[in-house]
Amino acid sequence: MRSSDVLRGDGASNSGSDVLVVGGGIIGLVTAWRAAQRGLRTAVVDPDPGGGAARVAAGMLAAVTELHYGEETLLGLNLASAERYPAFVAELAEATGPGHDVGHRACGTLAVALDADDRAHLRELHALQTRCGLTSEWLSGRECRRLEPMLAPGVRGGLRVDGDHQVDPRRLAAALLLACERAGVVFHRALAERLTVVRDRARGAVLTGGDEVTADQVVLAAGSLSGRLAGVPADVLPPVRPVKGQVLRLRVPPAYAPFLSRTVRAVVRGSHVYLVPRENGELVVGATSEELGWDTTVTAGGVYELLRDAHELVPGLTELPLTETRAGLRPASPDNAPLLGPTALPGLHLATGHYRNGVLLTPVTGDVMAEVLTTGALPDEARPFTPRRFSSARLEQPA
After folding, report:
1. Burial of 116 (0-12, 13-18, 19+ CB in 10 A)
2. Is CB count within 10 Å lower at the N or C end of the chain?
3. Domain range holding 303?
């Protein structure tokens, strides 16, 4: 096939692939890239590959500061993926060449408290991190402000986590798209409307317009849309729901630089807020968490709350130009952990439900899915995240 056909997606063959990935976000793209590297003929179905939640995500690689009670099992997978990031980024750079830097920064994270309640919460989080063997350092308010002079005078204390880094998800998606193209992945720039099932086995998908793409194996990696693909048996359909997040982007003029040297996050009046500074002068502020179905409207209230909370954390922020407001949908599962690997339907695999950790889990997801697609076996590190943990529970429910 000509490379121009791959880029346009209008010359894609319907003769079949070894693997068809439904969804072209960063999870679908890394799965396709790793599959192609293993020698599998791979295709991706997505009307806008490289889009999705990556265009909204801040890109925090925060295995430590994102730790929540009850998610200790997920922590292991998060740490494994964070450890792989430097080598993953280097390999991606080699595959894409100059000019495709993904903005990986080992700048660290500072989580701070603005009042006594937040300080107590951070102290508890620090204790949990210590019990889990994680490295974080408790700082006084004065020590926090010494690290980040733009912080509000009222900061009461904080946790310094040098191991939590960042990446630019938009650049990451663009690099993965290029790596896929160079690895020979075929792109069908259309929407998958229905899973094709032949003799009780997944065999491809029917696209908008009626075209059908066949494959020996199908990976459903459509983010929050993963639970809406027609043709998937009810007991296999992933229980993934959309959780809305609104994000702001501001620009730090040269006269204000350096504004922040690392990611800063806090809980303000019960709401999480973070500020992620990019090397290019962009400052990402996020994010709301709203259970509003498929709504992606940017609201005045959402923008106000983010600016209000961020201003309380870093007062000088309100002097910066506001360059973008955007809302996206995180794919959340019932236990906030991803669904990885084979389903009860032969030939159908899942790579979805990553919720807050899609960017962080990109390297390990690619490795896990490549192993599944080539050997049929789910690696040990991913076994707690098998999709069957939900399908089994559903089958056991009384009618």
Report:
1. exposed
2. C
3. 108-164+242-332
